[in-house]
Recover the amino acids of this structure.
């Protein structure tokens, strides 16, 4: 029996968190970033416009452990406007969002303004600049992962997401990685 392999990836903007996508050969997929072994799967997903840390593995049990509610996921989020203390409190305490056509109250998490702004690789498609109004960088940490949850949360408190970067999963970060970079590592010591 072969040993499982694990990778960390800084997913660039515009890529799908998949290896195979039936029907459309023009979509950017993870397999074009690295020669991954057969059976590699992403642990969780980041939607096409989202960037940042994506863990990949050939081990389904590892995937289950990382997706558990014991593991924090931290996102750096550029929101439209100057976020208010009240909106930050709402993000911390839980926000009602739509999940599968039903209202869902998110679990309590952490949220604070990032000062100074994070230094991140330039995005393939630029974000609007300050001439179009102010924006704020916020760190949001959650332990769940509903579809487009962070985007729905910031919109629910009145500050839509402009850029979303998953910075950390558990103790693993993208602090010294470039967009598109892949590193193989042993994740068994982390989860």
């Amino acid at each position: 029996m072969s040993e499982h392999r694990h990778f960390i990836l800084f997913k660039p903007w515009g890529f799908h968190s998949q290896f195979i996508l039936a029907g459309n050969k023009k979509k950017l997929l993870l397999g074009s970033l690295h020669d991954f072994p057969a059976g590699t799967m992403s642990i969780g997903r980041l939607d096409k416009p989202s960037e940042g840390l994506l863990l990949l593995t050939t081990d389904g049990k590892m995937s289950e452990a990382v997706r558990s509610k014991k593991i924090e996921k931290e996102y750096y989020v550029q929101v439209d406007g100057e976020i208010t203390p009240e909106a930050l409190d709402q993000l911390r305490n839980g926000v009602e969002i739509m999940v599968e056509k039903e209202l869902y109250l998110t679990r309590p998490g952490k949220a604070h303004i990032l000062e100074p702004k994070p230094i991140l690789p330039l995005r393939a498609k630029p974000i609007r600049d300050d001439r179009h109004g102010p924006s704020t960088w916020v760190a949001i940490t959650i332990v769940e992962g509903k579809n487009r949850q962070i985007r729905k949360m910031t919109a629910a408190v009145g500050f839509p997401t402009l850029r979303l970067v998953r910075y950390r999963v558990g103790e693993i970060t993208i602090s010294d990685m470039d967009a598109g970079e892949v590193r193989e590592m042993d994740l068994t010591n982390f989860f």
Q: What stands out?
A: The domain at 6-68+172-189 is CATH 3.30.70.580 (Alpha-Beta Plaits). The longest strand covers residues 161-169. The mean pLDDT is 92. The CA atoms of residues 28 and 181 lie 15 Å apart.
